[in-house]
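Late entry, written up from scratch paper. The run itself happened at the end of the previous shift, but nothing got recorded in the book at the time, so transcribing now.
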Amino acid sequence: MEQKLYELNEKATEIYHRELYRSYTALSYFSKRHIQLNTIEAFRIGYASGLYNLYEYLKCDGFNDDDIIASGLVKRQEDGSIVERYRNRIIFPIINEDNKIVAFGGRVIDDKFKPKYLNSPETKIFSKGKNLYGIHRAKNYAEDGIILVEGYIDVITLNKAGIKNVVASLGTAISSSQIELIKKYTNKIYIAFDSDKAGKIATLRILKYLEDEDVDVKFIHLKEAKDPDEYVNKYGVEKFKNLLYISKEELD
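Output as recorded:
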């Protein structure tokens, strides 16, 4: 079953990726976010418009209903019909440390629609609390530590700017399994969560949680922007690198 899910996720990634290039809406979104095609290719980003039937594509590729439903990409309704989980969303493949696609994150293009982010459910190959977005790339650049951010776009923007040792937590709550995953590659963690109240609370929670861990924890305080993506686009990557603080008093 696990190997079949990896194969299915790989095929779904190809389908979503092709669909992105058919969509003026999706390409315009990335243009506004200053994200170029080479970055889209590097992270294998896709788009689910809802106009194309992912379920039928996967069936044609030989996957059965049980496999497709087990992936979390579709849901069976009470009346027996199959519906796709993602519609009108940018699709971010979540790739594990072994470079296998284990799940997907979907982000709305128009922020008036909720939820803003929708991750795959727990599956045989995916547990949200055991994975980090971007770990497959960051592990190769972890000699100076790993930067922990909240969002997919934060990871992508920092990578585009040349900062490749960055991962996202798949939600503001951090788990012991995620910390252990980071510690496989470094004992230095730089927290760069959003500058809003929720981000500050999450940062303080993580700092408290990590007090008994064998890690060197610091944080990047974004005083003049809401998140790393906005900061780098406004002020440049060099100024972002100068935002390092050591004590949590900066958050109070």
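The chain has a mean pLDDT of 90.
(Scratch paper discarded after transcription.)
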